[in-house]
Each structure stands twice: as structure tokens, then as C-alpha cells.
Amino acid sequence: MPTVHLSLSDAMYKQLKEKSDEIGIQITDLIKLYIKMGLQGGLASRQEGSADVLMANLSNRLDKVERDLKLKVTMMEGRYRQLEEALDYILQRLDTLEDLVGEVKAKKALDVEQESVNT
Question: Per-residue DSSP letters for 37-70?
Fold first, then answer.
């Protein structure tokens, strides 16, 4: 692809940077869009160009929302797995404690029975 190098004043670069940040596209894409609008000519194409800018802006925002959503889903899935593992561990510990309580009760019952036999 052919490459074009431009020399811009700091003020013009700042304007381009602000506009590209505003609509959510890179400066080079904004420059390409402006060139395309200029080649298509006149005010009529500016309206189409505005629609193109709006479409590019919406597309970039949608991409960002999609990335954010995927990240949040991934984080939630990870958190779900952590909670599931913690719950499994707690249930295992509860089973162990129930077994120990049963053994202690059985031993106490046996001790009480032996005391009553001895007395």
C-alpha cells in the first residue's frame, strides 16, 4: 500500500487528535476519511461523510462494548469457578465435621453405657 507522509502544524495535529479522540478512531483513519470526503466533493458528500464518521464512531464504540463485555464475562466465569471450588471445599469439610461429631457422640454414648454398667 502506498504511503503518504504529511507535515502538519502543531495546531492542526492537535485539532485532528481531538476530533479523532472525540469520534473514537485513529488520526490516520480520520485523515483518510477527510481525504475521501474531499475527493467525493462538496457539501453533499460532507453529509455522507458525517454519516461515515458517525458509523465509524458507533462501530468503534460497539467494538469497545463487546471487548468490555467479553472481559467481564471471562472475569465472572473465573469468579464462579472460584466460588464453586470454595463451596466444594466447605461441603467436604462439613461432611468431615459431621462424621467427627457422630464419632464423638457414639464414643460418649459408649462411655455413658460403660459407666452405668460399672455402677
Answer: HHHH-HHHHHHHHHHHHHHHHHHHHHHHHHHHHH
